[in-house]
Amino acid sequence: MAKSWGDLVDGVKGGDLRSLARMITRVENRASGWKAAMKAIYPAAGRARVFGITGSPGAGKSTLTNKVALGLVEKGFRVGIIAVDPSSPFSGGALLGDRLRMGDIATKEGIFIRSMATRGALGGLCQGARDVSRILDAYGMDIVLIETVGVGQDEIEVVKAADLVMVICVPGQGDGIQALKAGIMEIADVFVVNKADREGADEVVADISMMLELSSEADGKKPPVMKTSALNGDGIECLVDTIIEMSEGKQRPEAQEEERIREEILLLLEREVALYVRKVWAHNGSLQAAVEQVLQGKSDPYTIAEEMISVIRDRSSGETRGKA
Amino acid sequence: MAKSWGDLVDGVKGGDLRSLARMITRVENRASGWKAAMKAIYPAAGRARVFGITGSPGAGKSTLTNKVALGLVEKGFRVGIIAVDPSSPFSGGALLGDRLRMGDIATKEGIFIRSMATRGALGGLCQGARDVSRILDAYGMDIVLIETVGVGQDEIEVVKAADLVMVICVPGQGDGIQALKAGIMEIADVFVVNKADREGADEVVADISMMLELSSEADGKKPPVMKTSALNGDGIECLVDTIIEMSEGKQRPEAQEEERIREEILLLLEREVALYVRKVWAHNGSLQAAVEQVLQGKSDPYTIAEEMISVIRDRSSGETRGKA
């Protein structure tokens, strides 16, 4: 039987695991009523600290994230994991990812793990991760770890929306440059050199330290650079302690928080408008007629889009001016 | 002196290199008048074949793309390269990438290379790559190679918008699974196992062939799997010949072409609407007031976005119903 949104929201707030899983799915799918449900969740969230974890493919992010989560649980924290999976638009990669990770830790008390396909997030990847973080937060998680491959712009936005950012490097990948290219170096709060049992780990630490030296501001507070080996467990406990310490650290400045809220409102609004536009014109003879004009070489996509936008622009600008 | 759009368009069509570079920059920046300029370019484009080239980081895409471009030029083709660079939003990675590649081939007659930052593309990465491809096409390029790291969803969309898709794998990265995860396996027209001088190349070829076997349709036309070594040049000439052959192959089916046009119109439209919305509300006291309400805990982003959208929706739906 399908539960009502009200039941799901109450379930989540009351710590019911099945409600949690269902609510996340429905919100991700933008099922009718999702926004009202998120409004109801919103006041119950805001307590958990959200860590964005990123690094190049093959850096061992999943394994390390799992070990960190286990470490946090041992110290009494409850942990949500969101694994952003650049999955196949065709073959349902996220499901596979979920199943591959299940054996590890998903049955562990105090941990909830959720894969999020880049494709599946109807509301956009960044907003989707925000929504799921908030639901996990309202459920009672103390720390949310969002793990993503820091390559696509979307994924960088996800990480940037977190409270704290962890960048994972490994020896033998030219990671200094990889991290720089991905644009996450500048927003990292902690660097982890994973697979430190491998040759070259100290060189990677030195490379990162040098880059931080070069790029650091005059006030000079540099993010720590830590070494771990998910394989043999070295450094994990120290990393877990660092995460706990950071999660108890000061809140972000109000100006930054204001900027985040502004961005979220605009993103939500843009997405709504975009979905609306798509709905109206896609099920409307005018789009099909326009496509045929382009096919026949009588028009082009730029002209068509401009003609279509003019309707919205003319009308709504008159309206907003009237309201302002 | 700033050239007019008309001069730039004429310059591009007449094969003037400086006009080409300037026009691309202005269109990427969405400088006022960009759409009219693209309308003027549109009829002159449509002749070049566009290859999307993707693969995991470290697969040697850049080097291979350069070698392929040189091989094509030797056979009398003119080649445009668009390097989609998941660059830093802070440190201007794309510029760096440009400079790193310059020495190689950028001064070669018949080749034009352009980096496109995931961050820089104001119109969205996918549309940006489409626009630049069209300008290169109108300039007279026979083949456009769009090289991207196939990890983010944005980048997959870029590759999907190309006429033909090449997926590059390397030994020792578990690439069979990497490619599957990235969702490009299903849309590949040709697979290349690069760094074939390394151990394990034949295993990668076998892995890919097996996956293709498993996933192939009943009609059974499978994409070729080729081996190259950008290091010693093995297999490059054969790959170049394959690319030429494919570029002369049949056009895509009309239904598929129709779908692409529809998507492009909707994307352009969505982006226009989103930019418009952002402009109107960002420079408007109502957004700032809303942000403060959220900061003070009196409202939440979902409620605010919903209130804001209702204005556009109410007005424009009345209008489009009137028009339909």
CATH superfamily assignment of the largest domain in chain A? P-loop containing nucleotide triphosphate hydrolases
Helix run count of chain A: 13
Bin the strand percentage of chain A: 5-15%
- And the CATH topology of the largest domain in chain A? Rossmann fold
Overall average residue pLDDT of chain A? 81
The CATH architecture designation of the largest domain in chain A is: 3-Layer(aba) Sandwich
As laid out across the biggest beta sheet of chain A, the strand order is 3-2-4-1-5-6-7
Question: What is the radius of gyration of chain A?
Answer: 22 Å
What letter string, H or E per element, gives the SSE order of chain A?
HHHEHEHEHEHEHEHEHHHH
Protein chains sharing the most extensive interface: A-B, 87 and 86 residues
CATH class division of the largest domain in chain A: Alpha Beta
What is the number of strand segments of chain A? Answer: 7
Q: Compute the number of structural domains of chain A.
A: 3
Helix content estimate of chain A: 40-55%
Low-confidence segments of chain A, given as residue ranges, are: 87-100, 319-324
